[in-house]
Automatic annotation (TrEMBL):
Pfam families: DUF998. This is DUF998 domain-containing protein. The chain crosses the membrane at residues 21-40, 66-89, 96-119, 131-149, 161-184, 210-233. The keyword Membrane applies. It comes from Shewanella algidipiscicola. The lineage of its organism: Bacteria, Pseudomonadati, Pseudomonadota, Gammaproteobacteria, Alteromonadales. Keywords: Membrane, Transmembrane, Transmembrane helix.
């Protein structure tokens, strides 16, 4: 019997509330990104591209016409996912899920700070991006531990927050986030300032056709949203 069919009334309410807030958060993130990218024009009249424009540039006031849409999606979408995590904390079925969700809350708060303080507020913005990557990396690592811990316990695998293909998606996230953090610390050639490249996400013209820091940043964010959506989907209401 599926675990959702054995939940009591209180557990079912928590699951439904968590699912609704989680899906709202994912939708706000994706919708704001889609709308802002369609309405984007830089100072030279160029449209948006994931290959050579950064997250910071899409949310820069005075540079991106619909920056407020993107930043609002980051802020309110992240806060909705924080609520998902708070409801989900009350339904953990393995010890490692607690640090996973707590770190995910910190990652979402960091992403909310990134939207609340765009690149125009430089230091708070870059601080938000930096800690979003650190907390996300740690959260996904704890989630992998949650899955593998359950796999070693024969006959008692993790149930509440496990989904098909989760290990593969989590490993992809770990690889991309880990690469971003690693390169940000050691490869100063990826930007013109010589700093870690989340401190220099405004490209100096002429803009290259493919700008690897921006590509890696977007790939990490999109994979993270996919991983978060899959985590939220495990809490969907099931028909009896």
């Amino acid at each position: 019997m599926h675990y959702q069919q054995t939940m009591n009334s209180s557990q079912r309410k928590l699951s439904v509330l968590g699912f609704r807030f989680g899906m709202l958060g994912i939708i706000l993130h994706v919708l704001s990104l889609f709308v802002a990218s369609l309405g984007f024009n830089d100072f030279n009249g160029n449209g948006f591209s994931f290959f050579n424009f950064s997250l910071s540039e899409l949310g820069q006031y005075g540079h991106s016409q619909l920056a407020v849409v993107f930043n609002g999606g980051l802020f309110f979408g992240s806060l909705s996912l924080v609520l998902f995590c708070l409801f989900s904390l009350q339904r953990c079925d393995r010890p490692l899920l607690y640090p996973c969700l707590l770190l995910l809350i910190l990652a979402m708060l960091s992403l909310a700070i990134t939207g609340l303080f765009p690149i125009n507020v430089y230091h708070l913005h870059t601080l938000g991006i930096e800690y979003f990557f650190y907390f996300s990396l740690l959260s996904i690592g704890c989630y992998l531990g949650y899955l593998w811990q359950g796999a070693r316990l024969a006959g008692n695998p993790p149930k509440h927050f496990a989904y098909q293909g989760c290990s593969v998606l989590s490993l992809l996230c770990i690889a991309v986030f880990g690469l971003f953090v690693f390169l940000a610390q050691v490869d100063s050639s990826l930007n013109h300032s010589g700093q870690a490249f989340y401190h220099g996400m405004m490209m100096i013209e002429p803009r290259p056709e493919f700008w690897w820091p921006a590509i890696l940043e977007w790939l990490a964010l999109l994979l993270f949203l996919g991983w978060s959506a899959a985590l939220v989907w495990t809490q969907r209401p099931m028909r009896d």
